[in-house]
Write a structure and sequence with these properties.
- By secondary structure, the protein is mostly helical.
- The protein has 7 helices and 2 strands; from the N terminus they run αααββαααα.
- It has a two-stranded antiparallel sheet.
- A hairpin with a 4-residue loop joins strand 1 (52-55) and strand 2 (60-63).
- The chain is elongated, with a radius of gyration of 22 Å.
Length: 152
């Protein structure tokens, strides 16, 4: 499990419990040592402004909401399997009708590729795994389709 997955998992643990969560349970859920769990907690406090507090009496960590809205992770977050699903959908769109959405999907494809490479994914491994067998392909002019779609 990488750092991002642990942050996401810790957020789910703390969000789903009403009582403070003991360090032993956090370590078991994250599959890491105590030092790693403490680093993840500290990282969330410093860089994500997570209101994680420790209750000495109950010996556990919790989100301190102070009666306000519950804490949520900022931005749009995906774990590795969700990124693979997005990449698969992107490859499917490319192969179903090459060039139709290539301009719009290029920045997304590059960002997904960068994130997957940082997570240890080999270059084009997903493209190699995905195979589409076409039985009958529709023939239409992309230029005409774009004009009709923009008019609608």
């Amino acid at each position: 499990m990488d750092k991002f997955d642990r942050i996401y998992a810790l957020h789910n643990i703390l969000s789903s419990h009403r009582q403070p969560v003991p360090m032993t349970k956090i370590m078991a859920e994250l599959g890491c040592a105590k030092a790693t769990a403490k680093r993840i907690i500290e990282h969330m406090r410093l860089y994500l402004a997570a209101p994680i507090s420790y209750d000495r009496e109950r010996n556990g960590y919790y989100y301190d909401s102070d009666g306000g809205h519950p804490f949520e992770l900022p931005g749009l977050w995906f774990n590795t399997s969700e990124l693979h699903a997005l990449l698969t959908a992107q490859v499917l769109l490319e192969r179903v009708d090459p060039g139709l959405y290539s301009e719009q999907l290029a920045p997304l494809r590059q960002k997904i590729k960068t994130i997957l490479e940082n997570a240890g994914e080999k270059d084009n491994e997903s493209n190699r795994r995905i195979r589409i067998l076409s039985l009958a392909k529709r023939q239409f002019d992309n230029h005409v389709f774009r004009q009709v779609a923009s008019a609608v």
